[in-house]
Amino acid sequence: MIQINLLGLPKPKKGKRAAAAAMPGEGPNPMVVIMLSLVVGVVVLGFMWMQISRDKARIDKEMAEAQREATSLAEAKAKYDERESQRKTFEQRVKVIEDLRAKQAGPIDLLTMIGDTVNNTDGVWLGVMKDDGRNVSLEGTALSVQQVANLMKNLQNTGYFRSVELKETAQDDQVKDMQQFNFSLTCEKADKTQPPQSATPAPGPGPKKL
Known about the structure:
Elements: H1 16-21, H2 30-119, E1 124-131, E2 135-142, H3 145-157, E3 161-171, E4 181-189
Antiparallel strand pairs: 1-2, 2-4, 3-4
């Protein structure tokens, strides 16, 4: 009997080769692909986790070092502030002591300076001295008006006074056997007193005081 293949397809052969040829579109096993994907994902996640862990450890270490450094700087600043406070307190105490010494020594220096100036001026005697803080008033006697002028000049030369003014001078009529003048001076203190200077006695007649 004669058979005609109208579709033009080859006639399948019998046997195992024919069965294999009948399945040309078959691919890899899906389970294998899923398992491989899971393995790759776990490896990638593990690598990322290890990287994050290393970064976290590094950041924690840097933060700890920064914290230690901040603590050390805070302690150093606290010590500096304490020493600075002690220094300022010490300077204030020294200033108070120096001010007290200056106030104590001021009147003594003034008395010494005026005493030396009067003693170095011929023919004058000091009777009264008053200090009101700004001005010094002097009252005394002299053998002549020239001696009063010499005393004023010597007081001015000490540097303690800004100005020395004559308030009054008059001859003492109660002294009969010699000429004598009573005088009154006002000495304005300088803003910054200079160290005492030995007043050079102005020339003039008259006996020196004993």
